[in-house]
Amino acid sequence: MKVTGSIAEIRALSRQWHTEGERVGLVPTMGYLHEGHLSLVQRSRELADRTVVSIFVNPTQFGPGEDLDTYPRDLDRDLELCSSEQVDAVFIPSADTFYAPGHSTWVEETALSKGLCGGSRPRHFRGVTTVVTKLFNAVQPDLAVFGRKDAQQALVIQRMVRDLDIPVEIHLGDIIREADGVAMSSRNARLNEVERVRARALNHGLKAAGGLCESGERRAAVLLSAVEKALREADAEIDYVELVGLESLQPVSELTAPALLAVAVRIGATRLIDNCILRPRG
Ligand code: PAF
């Protein structure tokens, strides 16, 4: 497994693979890998001949006062996991080399990025789209795999790729959950024991709304208040609970077509997100 922080080196490797007629898949990550990431790696290995994992805690997607400095990191463990998943190369740029001094060019999606996480993290998606573009330029993959837990991010990246004619197929992997239903996230490592139990409320809330939906409820207000109730009982600080159109990410008041039920909360100092798709019955 090749491990490199050099853009020239990863690009040369990708070019060599392409010359040999091989398809290259990229799994972009910020490290501290878990089963969710590994499922994306497995997906890439099914779809492509070669898989590159990038590990880069991207400073430009963190706002002032957010958890850039405390974001969990364990490179040795990440490399062991990548190696055991038969990853072909790991790209680990350093922040100094990846963002040249005076970096002043941004890639910005301006519609889908505005609501949900974009409401409380105004520069977040600009950082994500910029770094993903840079990763695509460095690795030159044929395809990239992202997780559905970051549903808004996935949609923003799909829109960016479409709008800018970027020749990379985007594939999405399902949310992977712990045995108790908590969605896997690198940030779960920052929860203490009590907070970890409280974090179950996200999935409980989504399931409560899912149950109502199953029994025929279509009013967004009722579905949302079921989620909010579960979150309040766990003393989670709600950032948003929203039911939005799958493509538009605009709020819907009635479930007349499949819609995304998305949640973001703070539990202690840790921000967690989760989501599910609700489908109207009948
Ligand atoms: O989802 C993530 O881990 C990050 O937002 C990504 C896509 C690797 C960009 O930094």
Keywords:
282 residues, binds pantoate, 10 helices, alpha/beta, three-stranded antiparallel beta sheet, globular, 9 strands, six-stranded parallel beta sheet
Describe it.
By secondary structure, the protein is of the alpha/beta class. The protein has ten helices and nine strands. A hairpin with a 2-residue loop joins strand 8 and strand 9. Helix 6 crosses helix 7 and helix 9 (200-214) packs antiparallel against helix 10. The chain is globular, with a radius of gyration of 19 Å. The site of pantoate (PAF) has 10 residues, from strand 2 and helix 6.
Radius of gyration (CA) equals: 19 Å
Distance between the termini: 50 Å
Ligand inventory reads: pantoate
Give the H and E element order. Answer: EHEHEHEHHHEHEHHHEEE
Strand arrangement across the biggest beta sheet: 1-4-3-2-5-6
Category from helices, strands and their pairing: alpha/beta
List the helices and strands and how they pair.
Elements: E1 2-4, H1 7-19, E2 24-29, H2 35-47, E3 50-55, H3 75-84, E4 89-91, H4 95-98, H5 117-120, H6 124-139, E5 143-147, H7 151-163, E6 169-173, H8 193-198, H9 200-214, H10 220-233, E7 237-245, E8 259-267, E9 270-278
Parallel strand pairs: 1-4, 2-3, 2-5, 3-4, 5-6
Antiparallel strand pairs: 7-8, 8-9
Helix pairs in contact: 6-7, 9-10
The chain binds pantoate.
Explain briefly what this protein structure is.
The protein has 282 residues and is of the alpha/beta class. The chain contains ten helices and nine strands.
